[in-house]
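Quick log. Single chain, no ligands specified.
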Amino acid sequence: MGDKPISFCDENGNFVSAADVWNAEKLEELFNKLNPKRQLRLEREKLEQQSEE
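-> predicted structure:
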């Protein structure tokens, strides 16, 4: 596991790193849950970037 901080236990009781638990999909879901307007802002920025090209 390298130098990742160990902070969680899996279903078998084994320690796993936070980096293995919080993948990109789970982080995206968490950020959108905590900040509902984030998804709207990201979509707006994406449309603005496409219109500039």
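The mean pLDDT is 81.
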